[in-house]
Amino acid sequence: MGDVSESVGSSSSLRRNRSFQRLVVAKVSNELSSAIGNVALPLIVLGMTASATLAGLVLFVSNAALIATQALGGALVDRHPPSLVLRLSSFAQAFGWALALTAILLPDAKFLPLLLLGAALAGGASGLDGPSEQALVKVIVPRDQLGWAAAVSQGREAGAGLIGGPVGGLLFSAGTVWALGAQIALNVVAGIFTPRSSSRATDLQPQSGYVVQLRDGFAFVWRQRGLRGVAIVAGLANLPIIVLPLTLIAYYQTRGEAPVAIGILATAFGAGVVAGALLAGPVSSRFRLGRLGSIALAAFALGQAAVVLTYPSLPITAAILLLSALPLPAFNAAISAYTVTVTPAPLMGRVTAASGVPGMLLMPVGALGGGLLFDHYGPVVPLVLSAMVAIATVVVMVSSSDLRLIPRLADLGEVVHEAPD
User: Which of these, 262, 47, 33, lies nearest to 125 by C-alpha position?
Assistant: First the structure.
């Protein structure tokens, strides 16, 4: 009964935490905008150029800008109030999508450069979301509620992703301008709802130069074996997360499937995340991160392998993607809560950025490579590559002592950090 009452108390406390609720609204709005773009943007490029390579190029530019900003922006979050950074990044994303909207209204020969610029600005600005969100969580959520907070955020963000796919397909069907217009509005909402930071000025004042602070964040991640292991596993897992959806979208679009149906397929994985998020709070706090990761990544890899055989059937493929996602929320919630728990507040932005960069390095490669492979070889080759990398991720996860040794969240403490002189 103690576990149940503690769980109920944590859940009700978070519901009364207005700053956290405002943060969730901001995160969900940005996530919904991204989910719409993940479906609508490739469809827009494919519809205007009939080239999966160009669709992959746009995603490559967006993801590359995201990685660059996240790598360099963690120290920016630590030097300024994270609420200010999140608000400005949300408005900058809205401006980027406004440029993309302008691009599709231009003659065909001129639309691509401006579209690339808009995608790069929106993607680059979104690289500041994660570090600033985590820095805010560190300030506004009590330590004993971090697991629940991560699970709540996971579930609601996954819900946004769940409806974002079909909404993106539906809006694209109504007209290419509608999808981008919705993304602009959602990013503006995120900027408006971003909560104010708690007054912890001493945590936000820079104690050294910008480059030194950046280096300090990466050094902290490298020294912490758990964070280092998570970064490596995430780096591998993000390749199939990009390659498989792009390949399926290009295949079904070429086959003539309705955009709404493609959007529903794109949300199948998100539907599994939403369902799994219902238990993510108590599960992420009760079991070791290594065990959660082994189960979650094994299910993910099995799903990737099965899609190689089932991709001709959209309904069967959607069902497999849904099932393969069920264990992931507990693992993701544990990673998020673990990072916030062990990281000192003055380093929160830099550590979030540094630990996320390795997980993003293969994303632009997957986007561009997936498009090239599809144009040259069809869907089978990129799908097989995606499955092989997913299987390799499981092998790394199971064999990593860095991850197996991470204790339960309840047994963790914050690492003492001394700022450089």
Answer: 33
Quick one: which of 213, 150, 211 has its CA closest to 344? 213
CB burial string 243-274: b at 16+ within 10 A, e below = bbbbbbbbbbbeeebebbebbbbbbbbbbbbb
Q: How far is CA 114 from the centre of its chain?
A: 25
Q: Is the pLDDT of residue 11 over 60?
A: no
Distance between alpha carbon 262 and the CA centroid of its chain, in Å? 20
Q: Which two tokens stand for residue 277?
A: 């998020």
Q: Which of 100-114, 221-235, 353-367 has the highest mean pLDDT?
A: 221-235
Residue 334: alpha-carbon gap to chain centroid:
15
Pick the most confident of 30-44, 187-201, 396-410.
30-44
CA 371/CA 127 separation, integer angstroms: 23
50: left (phi over 0), alpha (psi -120 to 50) or beta: left
Q: Where are the domains of the chain?
A: 17-196+207-411
Alpha helices in 256-347, H assignment, sequence order: 259-277, 280-286, 289-310, 314-325, 328-342
Q: What is the pTM of this model?
A: 0.65
pLDDT (0 to 100) of residue 8: 43
Measure the CA–CA gap between 264 and 187, rounded to whole angstroms. 22
Using left for φ > 0, alpha for ψ between -120 and 50, and beta otherwise, residue 257 falls in beta
Instruction: Determine contact, residues 76/85, Cβ cutoff 8 Å.
Output: yes
Q: Which of 166, 168, 163, 162 is nearest to 182 (CA)?
A: 168
CATH topology of domain 17-196+207-411: Growth Hormone; Chain: A; (1.20.1250)
